[in-house]
Amino acid sequence: MPGNRVARFRFLDGQGRWVPMAHSPQELLRWAGEIQPDVMQRTFSMFPAFTIDRPIPDGFTVGSFLDALARAANGYHTPRIDVNPGVLTDAQILDLARRLLDMPLTPRLRYLSLDNYGNRVRENGPEPVRRLLEGLLAQGWEGLELLICGTDRRGMLIPMPPSFGLAATLVFDIACPSFANCRDLGAWDHNTTCRDLVRRATPGARLLANIDFPGQIDCFKQLGPDGMASILAKIAAEQAPQGYSFIWPIVQLNPPPNDQVGQWDSTRYALRDGRTIYELIRDLVTRFSPKG
To answer: How far apart are CA 113 and CA 144, in angstroms?
Structure first.
């Protein structure tokens, strides 16, 4: 998955409906133009009822807005499929992936992010999941992205599933605080255990780090704006020397009834210096995350 600058913009539900919020499509386009991400990671989640023909505000359809966002960013989208066991069968995942490849978006979708991958390996077993990954690659996907190393609510490492050497991009949780200890800045130290495990899992794979949704981002918010700013600045400076790219969280909004869990809007947090968290991220991206 080429590109150093990675950001999260999510504003659609699983059917492609605009999530009610205080922002307009034009504001999201402005932010994408300012941040200029190479990769807009998990911009939307693909489910059977998802359609890019659905109208959204300001006269856009989902498809025309995704195209406009990619133009503003001079980047591309990686869609998300939830492979949590019990959500979709292998056949449904393969069907949705084929529909994504066929979507008339510009640029075309070529990189796919699989969420809850570890849960599927633990539930279904390694070999069926290996066959699923091979089936996806046989469709023509240029790269698969797997969230492969994370921590639970106690801050304990979750056993890492195999990637079989089939993933172009591996994602790990950036930090491992206990959810009972969210306000401790020291608990947000760099997760070197996950980083090193992931690096050994698939030599040569691209490494991305994230603050996971919904639990970790809700924990992160307990730091308050200036605490969050301090952690983001630390991550920004560490990412290149540590050999990964951070997924910058710009906005992720969920529709009711889940709109109180895992919500994130970087423009809503004001720092003592007068900037918002969004403006801090914009400045950190410009300084520490070169485009291309």
So the answer is: 6
